[in-house]
Model the fold of this input.
Amino acid sequence: MESKFEPMICPVCGKYEFVDDTDLEKADPDYEGYSGDQCSYCGWIYDVDQAHNPDSANGNNELSLNEYKEWYKERLKEDPDYNFSEASYEPEPHVCPVCGRHQFSDSFSYETCPVCGWVDDGVMEEEPDKWAANANDLCLNDYKTRYQKLCKTITGYNYSRDQYGK
Ligand SMILES: [Zn+2]
Ligand SMILES: [Zn+2]
Done:
């Protein structure tokens, strides 16, 4: 049975406020966007049953609430500024969508590909026909076309050497 949402301060760290944020919810009583809400400080996942029953661990979190509090205390001992969101952040290396010959270190890195000159821009990558003049002068598909032309015209075209296409 799905429990009703109750606004509360994170019972683990006391720093994060789970709010009934959702105009969406008011518009749609079945909206359950809050069910996966997670405290950015300690990582506790919102679970109203667990908040009322701190020894239960059968809900959204692997640990019971009391165990989670202990776990969080340990983290704070190691690092008084411990922040779950930062600690669990993992960069997403990915290959340049234009030339496929360079790896960017993270999504939205805004690094420039040394091979083709494409600036890493996740928005432009997601919608390859849009966003010209965002981080790059052309949209992804047009940029690709121009790159391929440059490769045909200039033997061994390399952006960091030739600087065409900017
Ligand atoms: Zn918390
Ligand atoms: Zn490239």
Notes: The two ends are 58 Å apart (CA to CA). Residues 94-162 form one domain. The helical segments are 23-27, 48-52, 65-78, 84-87, 122-126, 140-153, 159-162.
